[in-house]
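BUG: 3D viewer hangs when loading the predicted structure for this chain

Environment: internal workstation, default settings.
Expected: structure renders.
Actual: progress bar stalls at 90%.

Input used:
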Amino acid sequence: MAESGGTSRRTRVAVLGTGIMGAAMARSLCRAGLEVRAWNRTRAKAEPLAAEGATIAGTPAEAVADADVVLTMLYDGHAAAESVRAAAAGLRPGAYWLQCTTAGIDGLTPLAALAREHGLVFVDAPVLGTRQPAEAGRLTVLAAGPASAREPLAPVLDAVGARTIWVGEEPGAATRLKLVCNSWVLAATHATGEALALAEGLGVDPGLFLDAIAGGPLDLGYLRAKAAAIRAGDFTPSFAVDTAEKDARLIVAAGEAAGVRLDLAEAGAERFRRASEQGHGGEDMAATYFASFAG
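Structure tokens produced before the viewer hung:
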């Protein structure tokens, strides 16, 4: 991007939300040489990014001042809307809003309206991937927005993702695809937890289960990763139980609105709720395993 006088400068990106995913994406942007300002409601979560080259902002308005791109990665659509409203005084009309929060279909509509209110170019851009691919800049970005946004946003998208799948120009197309993808990911997570819990209950070595399906059509790299975490008792969050429950309920709501009954997603949301009630809400979603046992 360039100044009005034609002098080129680094793309300026405001990152609103520096939790597990937002912080990792901010680090990827810094490594790519972009100018990053980061804000988080709890400032202590953003401050480590200063060592990576980011400027830590005290308010959302300070973060977005003169930004070319505003990237939101927050808990839900309500939090994204609150943050952008709080940033209103610093927003530059014509800036791109790369909205990466999983907001759900209903949650996206007010965000698109907010973008129009402030003259922002809105791009619906949820991502696939958890902590590890986010830290490596290897996320898959699902994007829906005007074709004119693709070239200006390329430096940002290339920094955070291994690939970007443009699925349309109207906001909502990417969010719908994200919900479908997440329905599969969450179902596979629950299936892993339940299979290992059943093995324990029946006195079966879970390693025998994994050996029995090894190399065949029933084997799955994701199963191996989550099973290893459960067996090691390592629930360091790459995607937390409470966030997974939120996403599961967005999936159920989307299905209901479309006249599609999603029994697995509904039961899965309840499993996450039980795991959270047992004290695992901040742990990795593989902790759905614990929902198979009495609290």
